[in-house]
Specification:
The protein is an alpha/beta fold. The protein is about 25% helix and about 25% strand. It has 6 helices and 8 strands, in the order H-E-H-E-E-H-E-H-H-E-E-E-H-E.
């Protein structure tokens, strides 16, 4: 099924409900709507439409992974960072990692392929998903990410994103 906002009502938590929750918590963001984006290459093709010149922003890619013990992980990295799953599994001390299925993605993070985002941890914490984030986020002022659908992106300050994680009970493990 499509990962755009046209189908958000089929998700456990809609993008609209997520945005309303961010508003209720007083977390600031800039919302951008665009064509559905499924890959980093798709994102790079449209990011000039909403990037602010001179802004210290982190543009990300997200990996939903599982290990042999069926533990689930969301890994958020700077979009150009190369990743070796075998080395990552060893670094995390969890053994071999593989990509999780679309069904497990929906079950554990409440999203569809192409819409993976750190904001999905609002669902992930309830399903014991472990969250890892690129340490590059610590140096950025703003993080760009999807809002549980792939045709909406928010720019959120790092401070507000960390507040979001605190509010949903998500522990962030930093990747060097």
């Amino acid at each position: 099924m499509d990962a755009s906002s046209a189908f958000q009502d089929t998700l456990p938590l809609s993008s609209d409900a997520l945005l309303a929750q961010l508003n209720d918590w007083g977390l600031a963001y800039r919302l951008h709507t665009h064509v559905p984006l499924r890959t980093v290459e798709d994102s790079k093709a449209v990011e000039d439409q909403f990037m602010v010149p001179g802004e210290n922003a982190l543009r990300i890619k997200n990996l939903y992974l599982r290990d042999k013990k069926k533990r689930n992980y969301l890994v958020t990295l700077e979009q150009n960072r190369a990743i070796d799953l075998k080395a990552l599994g060893a670094e995390l001390g969890v053994g071999n990692l593989s990509f999780g299925s679309a069904d497990r993605l929906l079950q554990n993070l409440g999203i569809r392929p192409g819409a993976v985002s750190p904001l999905a941890m609002i669902n992930g914490v309830q399903n014991e998903v472990w969250f890892f984030m690129d340490a590059a986020a610590r140096q950025s002022d703003v993080v760009y990410m999807h809002t549980l659908v792939n045709d909406r992106t928010v720019a959120m300050s790092r401070a507000d994103l960390m507040d979001f994680f605190d509010r949903v009970g998500c522990e962030v493990t930093w990747l060097p």
